[in-house]
Amino acid sequence: MADLKKIMEELSGLTVLEAAELVKMLEEEWGVSAAAPVAMAAMAGAAAEEEVEEKTEFDVILKDAGPKKIQVIKVIRQLTSLGLSDSKELAETADAKIMEAVGKEAAEDAKAKIEEAGGVVELA
């Protein structure tokens, strides 16, 4: 069996150019590529970063105005500054977007206010 410590010491003494030449020779001898595993690891790392990204913008969607539709209409008017007829139309429309692309805090605040008034809300 080869003396692994001796091999490690010899590899540590190589210059960058010598190490690159060694890699090239090993690739030719064994028919492999040292770049493929590195590229795959980089792609896997990038995919993991994409999955971790936290959503920062939300849509506030009214699923149902509930039994207190007038209170929900009032809250919609406060949140959106729409007129009475437009707010009423949103309250009566299934899956109506009350607010679009708002921050998490604003979306949660709007949801709490609408639910307090009797409506059913979803954040998307």
Protein architecture, described:
The protein is an alpha+beta fold and 124 residues long. The protein has helices at 4-12, 16-30, 35-52, 69-80, 84-92, 104-117, and strands spanning 58-64, 96-102, 120-123. It has 2 domains: 4-52, no CATH class; 58-123, Ribosomal protein L7/L12, C-terminal domain/Adaptor protein ClpS (Ribosomal Protein L30, Chain: A, 2-Layer Sandwich), CATH 3.30.1390. α4 packs across α5 and α4 packs antiparallel against α6. The longest helix has 18 residues, at 35-52. The termini are far apart.
Helix and strand topology:
Blueprint: H1 4-12, H2 16-30, H3 35-52, E1 58-64, H4 69-80, H5 84-92, E2 96-102, H6 104-117, E3 120-123
Antiparallel strand pairs: 1-2, 1-3
Helix pairs in contact: 4-5, 4-6
Key features?
about 60% helix, 2 domains, alpha+beta, Ribosomal Protein L30, Chain: A, about 120 residues, three-stranded antiparallel sheet
Outline of the structure:
Helices cover 62% and strands 15% of the residues.
The top-level CATH class of the largest domain is Alpha Beta
Total domain modules: 2
Multimerization state: single chain
Q: In CATH terms, what is the fold-level topology of the largest domain?
A: Ribosomal Protein L30, Chain: A
Order of helices and strands: HHHEHHEHE
How far apart the termini lie comes to 61 Å
Give the strand tally. 3
Question: How do the strands of the widest beta sheet line up side by side?
Answer: 2-1-3
What is the tally of helical segments? Answer: 6
Q: What summary fits the major beta sheet?
A: 3 strands, antiparallel
Compute the CA-based radius of gyration.
30 Å
Which stretches are low in confidence, meaning pLDDT under 50 for 5 or more residues running? none
CATH architecture level-2 label of the largest domain: 2-Layer Sandwich
Proportion of residues in β-strands: 5-15%
Question: How much helicity do the residues have?
Answer: 55-70%
CATH homologous superfamily designation of the largest domain: Ribosomal protein L7/L12, C-terminal domain/Adaptor protein ClpS
